[in-house]
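Structure (tokenized):
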């Protein structure tokens, strides 16, 4: 029945896991913060990386980084980071990162990626990550991206058609949720998951009432051009998740299946940057 064994079904019906427990077990591994926000006498924040960060900013690069706090509709104050990578950028990427990193660890990647595909990048830390307040949860995840979206729209005046939503791993969950509600310039789903239960129990064929992160049920509502990226040897989120998300997404473009790549090394393959450049700088500009 629905791809689950009899023993698994008995376990689920006798003591079904609540969505928050699935979420906590599968997704949330906030690292020790690798950065700090420091406020001056006027209340303006600046960004400082700690010794735990693998890469430090130069003074010139710091000039292109703006940080601030915004508050979610669930009351958590979350950290936001805007990286001006290009003065001629048409698009700004709203980037939702993976589960075991924070803005400090991702900042060098953002600078490099944005400069190579001519995009500015706006990102945020989930509740309980970095210097963001609160605790990680599925509900907070959706509230976090909503707050980031509103901050990007109101603080910088960027129109939805000039925003690209980029989610990586657990970051694809809030990305799909937002993309199902707003039409944007484009969506990029990097190593997406169908749902929490489908990760924990790979033979699951339907969405149970206690499932967490049900992106598979939301992606048919995404009406923006969507690029899906997945490594064929991913041992964290199986390649089949990317394939199924691709099949269910009505606006999916030619995907990028990275042969031999796992969950955390897709960016190291030359085809990754090549496909992103083609998507952003050629397909979306036509």
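Design, position by position:
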């Amino acid at each position: 029945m629905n791809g689950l064994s009899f023993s698994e079904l008995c376990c689920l019906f006798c003591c079904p896991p609540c969505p928050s427990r699935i979420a906590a077990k599968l997704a949330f591994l906030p690292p020790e913060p690798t950065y700090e926000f420091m406020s001056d006498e006027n209340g303006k924040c600046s960004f400082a990386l700690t010794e735990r960060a693998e890469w430090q900013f130069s003074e010139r690069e710091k000039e292109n980084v703006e940080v601030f706090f915004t508050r979610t509709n669930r009351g958590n104050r979350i950290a936001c980071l805007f990286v001006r990578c290009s003065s001629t950028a048409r698009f700004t990427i709203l980037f939702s990162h993976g589960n075991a990193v924070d803005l400090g660890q991702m900042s060098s990647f953002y600078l490099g990626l944005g400069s190579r595909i001519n995009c500015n990048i706006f990102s945020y830390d989930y509740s309980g990550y970095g210097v963001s307040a609160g605790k990680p949860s599925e509900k907070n995840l959706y509230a976090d991206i909503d707050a980031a979206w509103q901050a990007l729209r109101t603080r910088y005046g960027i129109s939805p058609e000039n925003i690209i939503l980029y989610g990586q791993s657990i970051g694809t969950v809030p990305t799909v949720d937002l993309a199902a509600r707003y039409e944007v310039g484009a969506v990029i789903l990097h190593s997406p998951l169908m749902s929490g239960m489908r990760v924990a129990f790979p033979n699951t064929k339907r969405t149970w009432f206690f499932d967490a992160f049900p992106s598979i049920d939301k992606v048919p509502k995404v009406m923006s051009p969507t690029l899906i990226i997945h490594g064929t040897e991913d041992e964290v989120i199986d390649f089949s998740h990317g394939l199924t998300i691709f099949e269910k997404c009505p606006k999916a473009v030619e995907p990028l299946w990275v042969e031999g790549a796992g969950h955390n090394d897709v960016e190291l393959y030359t085809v990754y940057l090549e496909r992103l450049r083609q998507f952003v700088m050629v397909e979306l500009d036509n």
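Reviewer-requested clarification: The radius of gyration is 19 Å. The longest helix spans residues 138-156.
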